[in-house]
Design a protein that fits this description.
The radius of gyration is 26 Å and the shape is globular. It folds into 5 domains: 2-51 and 306-394, Beta Barrel (OB fold (Dihydrolipoamide Acetyltransferase, E2P)), CATH 2.40.50; 62-303, DNA ligase/mRNA capping enzyme (D-amino Acid Aminotransferase, Chain A, domain 1), CATH 3.30.470.30; 432-469 and 476-509, DNA polymerase, domain 1 (Orthogonal Bundle), CATH 1.10.150.20; 513-599, Orthogonal Bundle (DNA polymerase, domain 1), CATH 1.10.150.20; 614-680, Rossmann fold, CATH 3.40.50. The chain is an alpha+beta fold. The chain has 25 helices and 24 strands. The longest helix is centred in the first third of the chain and has 17 residues, at 22-38. The strands form 7 sheets. Strands 2-11-10-3-9 form a 5-stranded mixed sheet, with helices on both faces.
Length: 684
């Protein structure tokens, strides 16, 4: 599932060639999130919940966003909207009968863009990219009529954020011109807009009918207003196009009513939308709510239902991922829905094929999926990749239930399904070529070593030619293939400059932050955020490596210390310890580290009175919620643990504190009440 979502992010955000539908992506991500919430210890290292967008392409300069451009959480039905409101109220301790206003606006299906103005002048424009780094498309953005080159009365620094899109009429006219000239036609307006904005030649962009809606902001030298709605009004006064369907709503009932109105008008709009975005209107409350790793707590996208179509399932293929997961893929008779043709769909796992959900209960009323079946698929964006139902009336009498393989199609090793795991996995490990190459792709991915010029395509080729079999081999490429008869510059598609650029890029990554190294190892259940938790806890590679080497699964001081980290459970801890103690894996890791200079972790804040301290919260907090307290402590460089131990520095105990307070007293841990804690961190 994670492999599919990560690939989908790259296809959609970076390459403008999405290969799964919005509905499929949303449902996969929703299921992934639900599993992570239900089983936090099973969270994967490459979890899409820790990612935003995709890394920028090599064709553009890079711009670092001063304020990250995040994605939005999703709601798919009315209950999700009420749950969103309930979560907001719980976080802020606002009662159900107290007023709480939101804004509701159409979710434009286009390409996110950030415009930076200084002293009223447009100085740069950047795509979202991976949320931290975007593509410099300033020259292209200047050609869009909806984007002012200068504005009067604005703050000295103003980053306006919004969506570049193309109207239906302009899209149709563009495709007609492209076809007449023998050029590329586009699948839909979103692809056309994204491809047009990301042209290396701004003269091409100038000829494309792009438009821009402003709906948010990033870096500011002065506030735009006290509320979301007032701030949007001010953007409109600056000369930006804002959406006239944006409305202030008093609570979920009005939000849903506005959603229904927009849904009814959707077909008549001149632009594509795929939902409605709700935001807490009060900007002070937005600041209190803050952000998760990839999404704001104060906003959510209420997505529209998907479109449906029927086609025939021709075959089921099995793909093997980095962790050995056997993922079934449906090969379909190509079908067109909304002008888009697709021929593949995800089938998730063997239970899904058999008609069972993740909880073991029937889905599709228990109807299984068989080769030759007529299947119903749905879309809400670009392609049609997910099967919704099966037409048993059209099933051939000779069709037999699908027998999921018990051996790996890549290496022939036994494929087993462990108790509690929805996925069957190959046991071949490093002898399985599919796993080996996928691990290498993960190693060079954005959150890991992110080596410029060494992407999935290059990894596959080097692996096939046996130039690179393990991560450490990457750092010996120059020594082995930088000179002599067989050298990189002589390979097809390479030259002396590109070869040297790659070698230099590899050498640049010999110095690596600890959390990136831990994430790059591809240890199951250890994602980007988990790697950061581990790095902050242990501080250095030597301390981390020594602890994992000495630890015994389920017992001992090192094990207790590991599972005491808030966010690290027994499943992740077991995976860490067994991987670091597995002879072959450890030999590869040690060989890799010998090529590197690993930087120690740096605390978020080095000046606060709690920086580097281990803090535990217990009992009932009365002036802030537990979630707010944890977020505030971590922002000051503290490490928040879920249990008290001899390493705990501070226990913050509210009314009702029980066993943790007693244990802290027995261990001599400093204990304080909520008021004392707030005074200590300067929030009294």
């Amino acid at each position: 599932m994670a492999e599919q979502l990560n690939a989908a992010n790259i296809a959609y955000h970076r390459d403008d060639t999405p290969d799964i539908s919005d509905a499929e992506y949303d449902r996969l991500r929703r299921r992934n999130t639900a599993l992570e919430e239900a089983f936090p210890n099973l969270k994967r290292k490459d979890s899409p919940s820790e990612q935003v967008g995709a890394a920028v392409s090599d064709g553009f300069g890079k711009i670092q966003h001063v304020v990250r451009m995040l994605s939005l959480g999703n709601a798919f039905n009315d209950d999700d909207v009420f749950d969103f409101d309930a979560r907001i109220r719980k976080y802020l301790s606002i009662s159900a009968d107290s007023p709480l206003a939101y804004t509701a606006e159409p979710k434009i299906d286009g390409l996110s863009l950030s415009l930076r103005y200084e002293q009223g002048q447009l100085i740069q424009a950047a795509t979202r990219g991976d949320g931290t780094t975007g593509e410099n498309v300033t020259a292209n953005a200047r050609t869009i009529a909806d984007i002012p080159q200068s504005i009067a009365g604005a703050p000295d620094v103003l980053e306006v954020r919004g969506e570049v899109y193309m109207s239906h009429a302009d899209f149709a006219a563009l495709n007609e011109r492209q076809a007449a000239a023998g050029g590329k036609t586009f699948a839909n307006p979103r692809n056309a807009a994204a491809g047009s904005l990301r042209q290396l030649d701004p003269n091409i962009t100038k000829e494309r009918p792009l438009k821009f809606f402003a709906y948010a902001w990033g870096d500011l030298s002065a506030p735009l207003g006290e509320t979301q709605s007032k701030a949007i009004e001010r953007l409109a006064n600056f000369g930006f196009s804002t959406n006239d369907l944006t409305q202030r709503c008093d609570g979920p009932d009005e939000m849903i009513a506005h959603y229904r109105m927009i849904e009814e008008r959707r077909a008549a709009l001149e632009y594509d939308i795929d939902g409605v975005v709700y935001k807490v209107d009060d900007l002070d409350l937005q600041r209190r709510l803050g952000f998760r790793s990839t999404t704001p707590r104060w906003a959510i996208a209420h997505k529209f239902p998907a479109e449906l179509a029927w086609t025939q399932l021709e075959a089921i293929d099995i793909q093997v991922g980095r962790t050995g997961a056997l993922s079934p893929v449906a090969r379909l008779v190509p079908v067109t829905v909304g002008g888009v043709v697709v021929s593949n769909a995800t089938l998730h796992n063997e239970d899904y094929i058999a008609g069972l959900g993740g909880d073991g209960n029937p889905i599709r009323e228990g109807r299984d999926i068989r080769v030759g079946d007529w299947v119903q698929i749905y879309r809400a964006g670009d392609v049609i990749p997910k099967i919704k139902d099966v037409d048993l009336a059209r099933r051939d009498e000779s069709a037999v239930p699908y027998a999921f393989p018990t051996t790996c199609p890549e290496c022939g090793s036994t494929a087993i399904r462990e108790e509690g795991d929805a996925v069957r996995r190959c046991t071949g490990g490093i002898i399985c070529p599919a796993q080996a190459v996928e691990k290498l792709k993960h190693f060079v991915s954005r959150g890991a070593f992110d080596i410029e010029g060494l992407g999935a395509k290059q990894v596959e080729q080097f692996f096939a030619d046996e130039w690179v079999k393990t991560p450490a081999d990457i750092f010996t490429l120059r020594a082995r293939f930088g000179s002599g008869l067989q050298q990189l510059k002589n390979r097809e598609g390479w030259g002396e400059k590109s070869a040297n650029n790659l070698f230099d890029a590899i050498d640049d990554k010999r110095k690596i932050d600890l959390h990136r190294l831990i994430f790059s190892l591809g240890i199951r259940h250890v994602g980007d955020s988990s790697a950061t938790l581990l790095a902050n806890h242990y501080g250095s590679w030597s301390a981390f490596e020594a602890a994992m080497t000495r630890a015994t699964v389920g017992d001992g001081a090192e094990w207790d210390d590991l599972v005491s980290i808030d966010g690290v459970g027994a499943v992740m801890a077991t995976s860490l310890v067994t991987t670091m103690q597995q002879e072959t894996e450890r030999a590869q890791i040690d060989r890799l580290v010998s090529e590197l200079e690993v930087h120690d972790a740096v605390a978020v804040s080095t000046e606060s009175p709690v920086s580097g301290k281990i803090v535990v919260f217990t009992g009932t907090l009365e002036r802030m919620t537990r979630a707010e307290a944890k977020s505030r402590a971590e922002s000051l460089g503290a490490k928040v643990s879920g249990s008290v131990s001899s390493k705990t520095d501070i226990l913050v105990a509210g009314p009702g504190a029980g066993s943790k307070a007693k244990k802290a007293a027995d261990l001599g841990v400093e204990t304080m009440d909520e008021d004392s804690w707030l005074a200590l961190i300067g929030d009294a």
